[in-house]
């Protein structure tokens, strides 16, 4: 039944789809080959050890691993509500002119090179955190271990804030499109049933937009995990594990960015490839986790239907 | 999402919440209060998001405006101490790199995204979706390292081609995912109607679905291209950089973000001024493109010609 | 349809190359032919090298493309044969040279540079005097306050605040770190036994900043900090720099003359006729600044490509003689003439072609 046109069409789209796992395959192979010596020598200590000393052959990235997770998750926690809120405002409440300006500003921000974000962060955000944000947080939660210790401005929190700013455009852009795409009929139905504006959003618009928004958040998380240039300028670059968010730390991507240019010895280079592989694995797991939660949420929603019907 | 799913995911939460409202004895006044509160919260979050973003743009303007000049755009880089240097070769280089990346990455991304939207339930779709998300999260420096090993080392030279390939590898999954999401926003009834009327699959995709999802796809493309235009790390070991004018794909080539990176991290005021001006220029160009694309592709209803 | 046209136009504009700009180029011939030589390596000498390449291109038409991707990166690219020469402040050891299968790598000094200790102590206007052991203890975390007795002892009459010292180090490996830790290792047994000497060491205390720019920026914006940067970053950012005590016992401020003094007489200390791997740190010369270093150019002893080999050697010949004239203006010190003679002799020994 399928004509030639459709067979060509299907073939082409399938080929294109296959190109994507192929490129990841090439990247993984290259990294694996390069990282093999380190994986063989160091093994699990790579992840568990805290000391990173290339000259003596100690390659432990526990601090950077934790730092990556901390900064990225915190960044998404900050950016997601802000992004969704901005998207809601842009689509639902703002007058058309304002809406267009807002949308344009948000999209432009995705184009700013990370080195510019980094320089801005180092010049403006770091002193700001040191002089305003950290004292404020310490006044409120100084007793808890999360805000303990002196703040030099550069640290996990600063990196998380900067990352949140960088990934905000992704969440906002995708959320905006998805929210705007919810059919008018859904909205009007809710309003007709007597819902307030907010209730309409909560019950008719957001649930329909949920999958798309989650997709945008996944994109944003990916960007946060992989950001190299900007983070290294505001995080303090210290292999340190601390409960305090105000303490300096490290991320895997920053480690790569800082050391790849200088690594001359084969062992060092191999260790960095192993770090790259580890980062890739981390991203894979994170994405997997989000995907699973998504599927579970949708399934829960469907299951609830069974009950109420 | 099929029509059935859309109906059933909306209803249960509304029912549950209505019950919740009853349980919390929420009166009309209470609901109105909550509405007002949430409106404020939404406006506040937009403001909170926007203030730092405007601050960054402002900082960029302040530091960059002074350095913008025609000389910047038309001259080649000069060493420290010689006035009048510019980034003409970097601009040309970036255009070439983006061109190569676009030619390699956009078709793959668009078609892959279409595949994901048309046949979303197979094993391949799940794998591709997952891998695309992973790639979107891969640090760009890792992509650069991989392309170095796969392209630069065998070729024994840095090249614009290698740089373009690295950018394409970053571009394709981004475009694929955003395209898929935008295509899936088109109600399935539209596709079914077209097929019922006798359109072949490829005709449906190109003449019916794509125009309906057009603006969303364009937004996605723009965001992806803007992101890639500002990438530095993958170019360090692939395109390498070049102080001279070059538009050859097999030679090392300059790029605006590379130039910004080198100059901004130097100690010299005149270089730094150029870096900030270049950054401002880059953002300005993207702004113009975004506004232009938006103006042309305003959100249409499904066309009934 | 209109959207497709717009997309097509945008892509078309993006893809088309275009002609070179109409404004006159600084090259003598304005050719847009391909580059003659490619090099990669350290950022330390980049400003001077870019001046050299520009002048040399005007003089001879030879175009050289050098990018500062890091000295380790430069060595790697040289090893893979992707670039023609490298640049580094940390010379390769014999073991490292042996690891390069393509051939023996020659290391030729190109210029003298210096590392400076910069600080930000609010209210302090006088120049700070420091010695190597005090600096080592600061960076080890043993001296934690600005008004520590050992600091006060060196800086009599200067009022130092009781605040905590915030150390700033280089997060990315670099020649600057190599030179700095060289100095600390020579003087402090604790440092030698601890972080040691290298491009990338384990810093016991402090914040890591990216690049010289990062350190300079952090010091400039954060009070009570101390860090180390190349001379150019200290002078260009107008950061206060410390006078260091050299081996002869004098406190010397970082100036280009003091750097040049550090290299005086070095030709008598060369380990071999073609081996220039000498450290300029802590030399016994009276008015020498103790944190000085060569920046080396790395090339293969046997150049396989006839044309490229000739151009490269000719360029280096020019650089170590005429090129030295541009050094001072950019905060580098020229090579001592006696050393230049030895370098030229070594370059004669580079075999070109088959």
Summary of the model, kept short:
The complex is a heterotrimer of chains A (309), B (305) and C (354). By secondary structure, chain A is mainly alpha-helical.
Characterise the protein shown here.
The complex is a heterotrimer of chains A (309), B (305) and C (354). Chain A is built from eleven helices and two strands. The longest helix of chain A is centred in the last third of the chain and has 43 residues, at 266-308. Chain A has helices spanning 4-41, 45-48, 62-93, 96-109, 114-141, 156-181, 184-192, 197-226, 229-232, 252-259, 266-308, and strands at 52-53, 58-59. In chain A, helix 3 runs antiparallel to helix 8. The mean pLDDT of chain A is 84. With 309 residues, chain A is an all-alpha fold. Chain A is globular, with a radius of gyration of 23 Å. Chain A has a two-stranded antiparallel ribbon with strand order 1-2. By secondary structure, chain B is mostly helical. The longest helix of chain B has 38 residues, at 28-65. Chain B is globular. The model of chain B is unreliable at 1-11 and 300-305 (pLDDT under 50). Chain C is 37% helix and 18% strand. Chain C starts with a helix and ends with a strand. Mean pLDDT of chain C is 85; it is low at 1-32. In chain C, strands 2-1-3-11-4-8-6-7 form an eight-stranded mixed β-sheet. A three-stranded mixed β-sheet of chain C has the order 5-9-10. Chain C contains 13 helices and 13 strands. Chains in contact: A-B, A-C, B-C. At the A-B interface, helix 1, helix 3, helix 4, helix 5 and helix 6 of A face helix 1, helix 2, helix 4, helix 5 and helix 6 of B.
